[in-house]
Amino acid sequence: MLVLTRKLGESIKIGDDIEITILSTKNDQVRIGINAPLNLEIFRKELLNEITDENKQAASLQGDLLSILKRND
């Protein structure tokens, strides 16, 4: 993991297309701005984890339903 220290208003570039800027800091929170191509999906990690978990659960339920339907044939 690369660890960088940035001050208010300073940025980090990732490749040619992504720029992350520190917008503000307050208490233990940091507001960042992300300038990236519109076709690039950007998610908060906890939201992405939640989506992934829900998809796994839905896939599991689908498998269970299929096995129930096969038993009823």
TrEMBL record:
Chief location bin: cytoplasm
Species of origin: Robertmurraya beringensis
Entry annotated with the keyword RNA-binding: yes
Designated name of the protein: Translational regulator CsrA
Location of the protein in the cell: Cytoplasm
Pfam families given in the database record: CsrA
Record-linked InterPro entries: CsrA, CsrA_sf
Subunit record text: Homodimer; the beta-strands of each monomer intercalate to form a hydrophobic core, while the alpha-helices form wings that extend away from the core.
Family: Belongs to the CsrA/RsmA family.
Alphabetical keyword list: Bacterial flagellum biogenesis, Cytoplasm, Repressor, RNA-binding, Translation regulation
Encoding gene, per UniProt annotation: csrA
Biological role stated in the UniProt entry: A translational regulator that binds mRNA to regulate translation initiation and/or mRNA stability. Usually binds in the 5'-UTR at or near the Shine-Dalgarno sequence preventing ribosome-binding, thus repressing translation. Its main target seems to be the major flagellin gene, while its function is anatagonized by FliW.
